[in-house]
Specification:
alpha+beta; five-stranded mixed beta sheet; three-stranded antiparallel beta sheet; 4 helices
Length: 193
C-alpha cells in the first residue's frame, strides 16, 4: 500500500524470473560447500526439488539474482490462485485477490552481507505493485535480526508478532503477541500438514 523504492546490492546483479527448468540450479545454491554438505543427502535434495516444482505448479513465481552465471539468491511469491499456503503446521495463509505472499528468500553464505536480499525483495515488490497488487505478506524468524533489518530497509512494516510452538504429528500451537493475525492466517478444517 506504499510506494516501493528499488534497492541496489553492492555487487552487480542480474535479477530475473526463474522457471521450472531452473529448479536443480536453485536447489544447488542451498547446498553449502564444505563439511555441512554431507547433510544434504540425495533424498533431502529430492524433497527440496519436489517442493520447488510444487511451488511452480501451484502458480508460484521465483525470482533469482545472478552474478555472472552463478545464482546468488532465490525468492518466491505465492498468490491466491495457488490456494491456502501452510506457514506452520495447522495454520494457513489465505490471500485475497491482489494480495501476495513472499517467502523462502535464500542467499548462500559467501554472498550474504552484500545487500542482495533487499535488492531482490524490492524488485519483487515493484513487480507486484506494477501488476496491481495492493498488499504483500512475509514472515521472518524474530531471532534473525539481519533479515528484519533488510526487510525494514526495503520498507516492510511489522504488523503482527506471532509465536508458534511446532509439535510433532500435531497442529502447531499459535499465539498472536502483537497486532492481529486478522483473517489472513487461519486454521482450516481438514487441512493438516
Amino acid at each position: 500500500e506504499q510506494p516501493v523504492e528499488e534497492k541496489q546490492a553492492s555487487v552487480p546483479l542480474h535479477i530475473t524470473r526463474a522457471t521450472e527448468a531452473d529448479v536443480d540450479a536453485i536447489v544447488a545454491t542451498a547446498i553449502p560447500r564444505g563439511p555441512a554438505q554431507h547433510q544434504f543427502t540425495p533424498e533431502r535434495r529430492r524433497k527440496m526439488r519436489q517442493a520447488l516444482v510444487g511451488y511452480f505448479r501451484r502458480g508460484g513465481m521465483c525470482f533469482v539474482a545472478q552474478v555472472g552465471n552463478e545464482i546468488v539468491h532465490s525468492n518466491w511469491i505465492h498468490f491466491r490462485r495457488g490456494g491456502p499456503i501452510m506457514v506452520t503446521a495447522g495454520r494457513h495463509l489465505v490471500l485475497d485477490d491482489k494480495e501476495a505472499y513472499m517467502t523462502d528468500g535464500f542467499t548462500p553464505e559467501p554472498w550474504r552481507g552484500k545487500g542482495i536480499h533487499p535488492a531482490v525483495n524490492s524488485h519483487m515488490l515493484l513487480y507486484l505493485q506494477k501488476a496491481g497488487y495492493r498488499r504483500a505478506y512475509t514472515f521472518f524468524v524474530s531471532d534473525n535480526v539481519t533479515s528484519w533489518r533488510g526487510l525494514k530497509r526495503v520498507g516492510w512494516d511489522l504488523r503482527a508478532l506471532l509465536l508458534t510452538l511446532e509439535r510433532p504429528d500435531k497442529d502447531s500451537l499459535f499465539w498472536c503477541l502483537r497486532g492481529t493475525s486478522g483473517t489472513w492466517l487461519q486454521k482450516l478444517p481438514g487441512k493438516g500438514e
